[in-house]
Structure formats: structure tokens, C-alpha cells
Specification:
110 residues; two-stranded parallel ribbon; 45% helix; 4% strand; DNA-binding
DNA sequence: ACGATGACTCTTC
DNA sequence: GGAAGAGCCATCG
């Protein structure tokens, strides 16, 4: 699987994240069968601008529920997540454990 | 081809 | 829970 295909896969998972929920890079990587490629997932999300369809990249955060990346961009994601009903404090998701969405088990095959 | 880098994660302290 | 070291792999100069 080459980069673009991998990207599309990541976007596919990210799109299926329910509203008001978030997932982590590692979780997505796990679903794709490459749990050690967390960085590539991050790269895919960072390159979501190349996605054919809009991707809720704001629902993808680090394993600790911390919004990584540019502070300006991160703050935007924080607001978007807050709009979805999440509690966030200084780029850090509060009840991350509760709002965390595990694509491995909760994935909804439409 | 090589070394440095990165929106990461894991284990250990 | 936060900091430090190691691992992983694609991208870039």
C-alpha cells in the first residue's frame, strides 16, 4: 500500500468518527494493521487538504487526548470539538477516556 | 544514498 | 501525569 492509498484509508476512518467523539493516530493505525505507523497517520491527517472529501481532522488527536500541531490550528480544532459538546481545556481534552472512539470495536460498516 | 525531521507511541523514571 | 529515551517509517535537502 502506497502513501495515497494509506492516506485515503486514514481519512476513511476519520470520517466515521461519530460526532462528539475523538480517536487517536495509533488507533487508526491499528485498524489499518500498522499500529507502529502512527506518524504516517499524523502525516495523513496533516495532509487531509489533499483529501477528495472533507475530513474531520479535528476529531483526530494524540493518544493522550492532546491536540498536537500548530497552536493556531490546534485552537481551531479545540473550538470545533467544543461545538460538538466536548470539554477541552488548553488544547487538552478533559474526559478523553469517555469521548474516545475506538475504531477497532466501534467501527460502523455502512 | 544519507542524515535530519516529524500533528506519534511505548516503556521507564 | 509529566519528562526522557528508544522505536518506526515516509519525506526532504
Amino acid at each position: 500500500m502506497k502513501d495515497e492509498h494509506f492516506f485515503e484509508h486514514v481519512w476513511e476512518i476519520a470520517r466515521q468518527v461519530p460526532k462528539g467523539r475523538v480517536t487517536s493516530y495509533g488507533a487508526i493505525a491499528k485498524v489499518l494493521g500498522v499500529g507502529n505507523l502512527s506518524r504516517m497517520v499524523a502525516r495523513a491527517i496533516g495532509s487531509c487538504g489533499n483529501a477528495p472529501t472533507p475530513v474531520p481532522y479535528h476529531r483526530v488527536v494524540s493518544s493522550s487526548g492532546h491536540l498536537s500541531g500548530d497552536p493556531s490550528s490546534a485552537r481551531k480544532r479545540q473550538q470545533m470539538l467544543e461545538e460538538e459538546g466536548l470539554e477541552i481545556s488548553n488544547l487538552k481534552i478533559k474526559n478523553f477516556r469517555t469521548v474516545f472512539w475506538n475504531p477497532v470495536t466501534d467501527l460502523n460498516y455502512d
